[in-house]
Design a protein that fits this description.
Chain A is built from 11 helices and no strands. By secondary structure, chain A is mostly helical. Chain A is globular. Chain C has 2 domains: 55 residues, no CATH class; 220 residues, MetI-like (MetI-like fold, Orthogonal Bundle), CATH 1.10.3720.10. Classes of the chains: A mainly alpha (278), B alpha+beta (381), C mainly alpha (318). At the A-C interface, helix 1, helix 3, helix 4, helix 5 and helix 6 of A face helix 2, helix 4, helix 5, helix 6 and helix 10 of C.
Chain lengths: 278, 381, 318
């Protein structure tokens, strides 16, 4: 029947799509265990590249810098993005709304080379005029990351707010809560999952950013992507594969954990539903 | 000398009574659209007042203005002598029960109910006691620790009610309170609501589109359409003394006949109608000149249906043929086709148990419809 | 109107207490302003203002200085202000074929990639939406997981696959054929862009399809429409907003891509992102780099406004 043909088509596209996404990552992992230095040529199984990786101080330095930047960025971006989302959804029309709306959605699509260049020029001018930032690195990269991360957080918050009926906020007001109270008692707690998602997203984006970081960084501040990139330009190397495998492992664990938690919540919700049958 | 009339059950009739809620020339515009068009309303303390109307008639907007979520474009609202202009919802002595219940999903039932008291800064012990009392009044004591998503529809509604009453508001606003409930629960809850209201003496203002609900619950009903009030009165007044065809058709069913006043006396009025060809004799005088075109509304349950002719064959009676029968067990609804082809609706209780399982009056039978002189209502609009 | 806070405050309270009350009062009454102004100010300063610097420098000349461009305003002698703005850089861009071709090439590549992403992403999004509840979540997670791993490394993975001694060529050689050039070609860049950007196509499509009323499809079938007709006349128009959002989300950033053409395209694939980067870093020609950026912005401004419009409908409609 037609449905059958359609299902087969959909199923095969799905399978192909997933394979397409995952095969390269699987290959990365496999080749990280390649004894031979020349990546595509298999020389036997070995974990020596992992050893090299762990012993390399530059890798640790870059990793810790990237993690620090990502964490600080995620915190500020979540706060700023939430504020922006709140303003856009709950404040109705205000002067400058179109401008604000444009500024908060542009970073999502703006090519990174442009954002990177523009921010660098800003920092140079600032240095010229007020002497800060005297050195580019952690601070400038973090500021740059916050600027584009908050846009992503704002999108998440906006969609969650839009889905949240205003009933709850009105009910709180009706019961005597002033608007600020409503924000802290009702809106923010209900936004918490969205804020968490925003935090994680900002963290990931920051960890992954190459272009913007390379524009606004200074000597001595090498983030992990910058390090990886410079090594890649030198050719295919198994220690990069090893690094990749580690990252994939960490992410996979994180995602599986998140999935497990969500599944547990789902089971709990189903139990609750059964409880409501009078 | 006659005893002074007792207005305790009908405060709106007392010329000296001060209304508890006074809505004066209130309008609300949304851009070009007028949701509420200069309405006046007086609601007295202790009433269970219903705003009845179809979707979009403005009743919810008016309710929201009473709650403080919308500001009137013009006019004023006074509650218990206090002008509510510029008073935000969190400072009004008014609480609202939302159509969706609006229970805070991240708080337990207890916390939900306690929320209003917390905002008032009431002491913790007192809060605990009052929450306990309120929960037992709505019979939800054992669900105190549950969260809203663990409750059924009826239970959620009771939490919403408890939460809105615990602050002992002067006025409780209810937005379609029974809308989300199934029939069985609805009937049960209707009576519970009325009981609670009587017990606590709180003035209720209910918004609904369900006539049955309005008729059962209210002390008085205001029928609203396109931002205006069409008629305000007790359920009986609205049903038996509608002021227009729209109101007559709005509540229950009414057979509507067009005609002309051919005789207007001190104690009677005769309306002649061409369609159906009969005369309506109404047993009270009216201040409408002869010759005026009017309509006569006749409720289905006021019409008597019989296989025998009645009266003089011309006044307050019509002949017709049964076109449709709706058998409901306790009563039957007949649609009878008369002279000009229209259908007249008659509701008749099945008071006699028939000897065999056959309807007392069958399809296509010739029947005679008749009614009392007091049964018809003459309407000029 | 005095606030409750002030009423509670004895006039001889210590400074820090007064400051605290003042701050809380400020927060309580002005919090709305803060909610708006803080992110607004940040964006104005760190997002919008920088573009003016790019504009300003694109109108300057290159010099050997630090920073390597001529200042816009110079004070000469007795307080006479000399403003120097040149449009040479833009003229240079226009005259030199290289730049025009690169812009066109970039647009061509990102357009084709967008279409490819759509062809691959649409059925996948459709399949996810139509699956049952648990499968849906698992599939979404599978689609998103790669996104959380390093983009750089995944592009690197393709280097290994497409290299002359890479996996694909290994397979071809094993089949007995001559190895083919894959890395450092346009094809490699297409593969890289599609690979990286396909989740950006799937997610908006999924978000849009999720909200649709699938009963409409059944109604169409009931009225006698064949599957293909239903698709063309019902499904496609209904998912149009998602298609638009996803396409813009791919097209606009892909046009300015740097890493993928650099790693997978080598010197053979010229995209404007690389040109910008090279002008800036290799040639230390900041004015020209800025001009390239401004020109790129001009090319992209219409799609960006379109995207803003589509996004706006999503949020303002509530």
């Amino acid at each position: 029947m037609n449905n059958g043909k359609r299902s087969i088509f959909l199923l095969s596209t799905l399978a192909f799509g997933i394979a397409f996404l995952y095969v390269p990552m699987v290959l990365l992992v496999i080749y990280s265990f390649n004894k031979s230095r020349i990546v595509p040529i298999w020389g036997g199984f070995s974990t020596k590249w992992y050893g090299e990786l762990f012993r390399s101080p530059e890798v640790w330095d870059a990793l810790s810098l990237s993690l620090k930047i990502a964490a600080v960025n995620a915190c500020f971006a979540t706060i700023l993005g939430t504020l922006a989302g709140l303003a856009l959804v709950r404040f109705g029309r205000f002067r400058g709304r179109t401008l604000f709306s444009g500024m908060i959605s542009a970073p999502l699509v703006m090519p990174e080379v442009i954002t990177g260049l523009s921010l660098l020029l800003l920092f140079i001018w600032l240095q010229d005029v007020i002497g800060w930032p005297s050195e580019r690195g952690f601070t400038t990269i973090t500021i740059a990351h916050i600027t584009f991360s908050m846009a992503y957080v704002a999108v998440i918050i906006q969609s969650r707010l839009a889905g949240m009926a205003q009933d709850l906020e009105e009910a709180a007001q009706d019961l005597g809560a002033k608007p600020l109270r409503v924000l802290t008692d009702i809106t923010l707690p209900l936004l918490a999952p969205g804020m968490l998602a925003g935090w994680l997203l900002s963290f990931t984006l920051s960890l992954d950013d190459l272009i913007i970081a390379s524009f606004v960084t200074g000597p001595g501040s090498t983030t992990l992507p910058i390090l990886i990139y410079s090594r890649i330009r030198l050719g295919l190397r198994p220690d990069i594969n090893a690094l990749a495998t580690m990252i994939i492992l960490v992410v996979a664990i994180g995602v599986i954990l998140a999935g497990y938690i969500m599944l547990r919540q789902q089971k709990q919700r189903e139990l609750d539903q059964r409880m409501t049958a009078e | 000398m006659a005893a002074a009339p007792d207005y305790t059950d009908r405060p709106w009739m007392d010329p000296d009574a001060e209304p508890f809620i006074k809505v004066q020339s209130v309008s609300k515009h949304f851009g070009d659209f007028t949701a509420v068009d200069s309405v006046d309303l007086e609601i007295f303390k202790g009433e269970l007042f219903c705003l009845l109307g179809a979707s979009g008639c403005g009743k919810s907007t008016l309710l929201r203005m009473l709650a403080g979520f919308e500001t009137p474009s013009s006019g004023s609202i006074v509650i218990d002598g206090q002008n509510m202009n510029d008073v935000p919802p969190y400072e009004r002595p008014v609480n609202m029960m939302f159509q969706s219940y609006a229970l805070f999903p991240h708080m337990t039932v207890e916390k939900n109910v306690a929320y209003g008291l917390r905002r008032d800064g009431v002491a913790g012990d007192e809060i605990r006691q009052r929450v306990e009392d309120m929960l037992s009044m709505v019979e939800l004591s054992q669900f105190a620790r549950r969260k809203p998503h663990q409750l059924s529809g009826g239970q959620k509604q009771r939490v919403a009610l408890a939460r809105s009453l615990i602050k002992q508001p002067k006025v409780l606003l209810l937005d379609e309170p029974l809308g989300a409930l199934d029939k069985r629960l609805r009937d049960q809850t209707q009576y519970e609501l009325m009981n609670i209201q009587e017990r606590l003496g709180v003035t209720f203002v209910v918004v609904t589109h369900d006539q049955e609900e309005a008729m059962t619950l209210s002390t008085r009903i205001a029928i609203m359409d396109a931002g205006r009030f069409m008629q305000i009165g007790t359920p009986t007044e609205i049903y038996e003394f509608p002021n227009s065809r729209v109101v007559a058709n709005f509540i229950g069913n009414a057979n509507m006949f067009a005609g002309r006043i051919i005789e207007n006396g001190p104690d009677h009025v005769i309306v002649e109608s061409k369609q159906p060809d009969c005369e309506f004799y109404i047993d009270h005088g009216m201040s409408i000149p002869e010759g005026t075109k009017v309509w006569v509304a006749l409720r289905p349950e006021k019409v008597h249906i019989s296989k025998e002719p009645a009266g003089d064959g011309k006044t307050n009676t019509i002949k017709g043929m049964v076109h449709d029968i709706g058998y409901l067990g306790g009563s039957s609804t007949y649609r009878v086709q008369i002279g000009g082809g229209e259908l007249v609706e008659i509701t008749s209780p099945n008071q006699q148990r028939p000897k065999e399982a056959k309807p007392p009056i069958d399809w296509d039978e010739e029947v005679y419809l008749s009614w009392e002189p007091s049964s018809s209502v003459v309407l000029t609009k | 109107m005095s606030t409750p806070a002030e009423a509670l405050l004895p006039s001889e309270a210590p400074f820090w207490k007064r400051a605290l009350y003042w701050i809380t009062h400020l927060l309580q009454t002005q919090w709305r302003r803060l909610v708006l102004y803080v992110p607004f100010a940040w964006l104005l300063f760190f997002f919008l203002a920088p573009f003016f610097f790019v504009l300003k420098i694109s109108l300057a000349e290159t010099t050997i200085a630090s920073p390597p461009y001529t200042p816009m305003i110079e004070w000469i002698d007795e307080g006479v202000m000399h403003v120097r703005l040149v449009i040479d850089n833009f003229a240079y861009l226009w005259e030199d074929d290289l730049y025009v071709n690169t812009y066109l090439n970039s647009i061509k590549i990102s357009s084709i990639s967008t279409i490819l992403c759509l062809l691959i992403g649409y059925p996948i999004a459709y399949a996810i939406v139509r699956s049952n509840h648990t499968t849906k979540h698992i599939l979404l997670m599978l689609i998103i997981l790669p996104f959380w791993t390093s983009f750089l490394l995944r592009v690197y993975a393709w280097m290994g696959i497409l290299a002359d001694q890479g996996l694909i060529n290994d397979f071809i050689k094993w089949l007995g054929f001559e190895p083919i050039r894959l890395l450092y070609t346009h094809t490699a860049v297409y593969i890289g862009i599609v690979y990286t950007y396909v989740p950006f196509m799937i997610l908006p499509l999924y978000a849009n399809m999720e909200k649709l009323d699938w009963e409409l499809l059944e109604a169409a079938a009931d009225l006698g429409a064949k599957p293909m007709t239903t698709f063309l006349t019902v499904t496609l128009p209904m998912t149009a907003p998602g298609i638009l959002a996803g396409s813009l989300l791919v097209f606009i950033p892909a046009t300015g891509e740097y890493v993928i053409p650099d790693l997978l395209g080598g010197g053979n694939v010229l995209m404007i992102g690389r040109v910008l980067y090279n002008e800036f870093n290799a040639n230390i020609d900041w004015p020209v780099a800025s001009a390239v950026a401004i020109a790129l912005l001009l090319v992209l401004v219409l799609p960006m406004m379109l995207y803003q419009h589509v996004q706006g409908k999503e949020t303002e409609g509530k």
